[in-house]
Amino acid sequence: GRHSLFLKGDDTFWAWGNNESGQLGNGSTTISYLPVRVSGLSGVSAIAGGIDHNIALKDDSTVCSWGNNEYGQLGDGTSTPYSNIPVRVSGLSGVAAIAGGRYHSVALKEDGTVWAWGSNNSGQLGIESIRESNMPVQVSGMRDVVAIAAGDSHSVALKDDGSVWAWGNNDSGQLGNGSTITSFSPVQ
Questions:
Q1: Which of 25, 89, 166, 181 could form a disulfide with 75 if both were Cys (CB 3.0 to 4.6 A apart)?
Q2: In sequence order, what are the beta bridge partners of 166?
Q3: Per-residue pLDDT of the chain (188 residues; tens, 9 = 90+)
């Protein structure tokens, strides 16, 4: 979006840029032109950014998020507009990888299942409806997944058999299935 973030080798997490939704995670909503430390976040193994929100995978396989929550993309079960400090994503553990879309987030669990939360106006949560969710929901039919990615309003998964599956907005053919028809469930 309009901010940047990085994880330093000393296990500290930093961000800078726009902060109107608290996406810098430093307890304020003030823009910063220099890196500021994300508050209270340590033990992080991976980070991902959305347009105005961020998610972090912790060493204990749980996930935290902060920033804009207009569509539930923080996954903490609340409808607060934003959080300017990291909050724990509700009911999600055993996570191996994360990805941030425009207004949604995706997680790959160690058991090979895929979970998503946030905006779902184009089916990017993969739950066969357009209902958004402020808590993680399991993507329909996704098992044996080894990698994930999230785009603007679509999501992608690589299965252990080498097949690639995608769901969500497809107005420009981003699902790669030879059509421009949006799909609310994963298509190969």
A1: 89
A2: 156, 187
A3: 899 999 888 888 899 999 999 999 999 999 999 999 999 888 999 999 999 999 999 999 999 999 999 999 999 999 999 999 999 999 999 999 999 999 999 999 999 999 999 999 999 999 988 999 999 999 999 999 999 999 999 999 999 999 999 999 999 999 999 999 999 999 99
Which amino acid belongs to residue 101? G
- Identity of the amino acid at 76: D
Rounded CA-CA distance 119/132 in Å is: 5
Instruction: Tell me the two tokens of residue 60.
Output: 């204990």
Cβ contact 67:75 at 8 Å: no
Strands, E, within the chain: which ranges? Answer: 3-7, 13-17, 32-37, 44-49, 53-58, 63-68, 82-88, 95-100, 104-109, 114-118, 133-138, 145-150, 154-159, 164-168, 183-187
Give me 134's structure tokens: 């402020």
